[in-house]
Amino acid sequence: MSEKNTPSTKYAVHSADRLKLLMERTGTGQPITSRELATAAGVAHGTIGALMAGTQRVVPEPKAKAIAAALGIDLLVLFVPMERAGRVYIPAQVTA
C-alpha cells in the first residue's frame, strides 16, 4: 500500500484549556488570537474555535502539525495520536 492511500493519523487535543494556555504564551512567548492561529496554521477559524470550546477534539495529522508549528511547540505537547497499536485512543478532557 502506498503512502498516498494510507489515511493520515488523527490527533486529539489534550484539552481545550491546554490549547488556550498555549495561545496565551506561544513558543515565542507572545500571545496569539484564535484568528491569528487559524491564519498562521492555514485552518478554518471555526476549527480553532471548536477546539477551544471542546466541541471538537480530533483533527487530521496535517492540521495538528500546522497548529503546533504555528504555536511554536512540539506536536505532542498539545496533541495525542489516536491510533496506537490498532486501537483508537481519545484522552479525557481535563479541567483545571
Number of E strands: 5
The major beta sheet can be summarized as:
3 strands, antiparallel
Compute the number of helices: 5
Read across the widest sheet, the strand sequence of neighbours is: 2-1-3
Shape: globular
Query: Which residues sit in consecutive blocks of at least 5 with pLDDT less than 50?
Result: none
Topology pattern, helix = H, strand = E: EHHHEHHEEE
Mean of residue pLDDT values:
85
Specify the helix fraction band: 40-55%
Looking at the chains present, what oligomeric state does this protein adopt?
Answer: single chain
C-alpha termini separation? 43 Å
List the helices and strands and how they pair.
Elements: E1 10-13, H1 16-24, H2 34-41, H3 45-53, E2 58-60, H4 61-71, H5 75-78, E3 79-81, E4 83-84, E5 87-88
Antiparallel strand pairs: 1-2, 1-3, 4-5
Describe this structure in words.
The structure is a single chain. With 96 residues, the chain is an alpha+beta fold. The protein is built from 5 helices and 5 strands, in the order E-H-H-H-E-H-H-E-E-E. The strands form 2 sheets. Strands 2-1-3 form a 3-stranded antiparallel sheet. The chain has a two-stranded antiparallel ribbon with strand order 4-5. A hairpin with a 2-residue loop joins strand 4 (83-84) and strand 5 (87-88). Helix 2 packs across helix 3 and helix 2 (34-41) packs across helix 4 (61-71). The longest helix has 11 residues, at 61-71. The radius of gyration is 13 Å and the shape is globular. It starts with 9 loop residues before the first strand and ends in an 8-residue tail after the last strand. The mean pLDDT is 85.
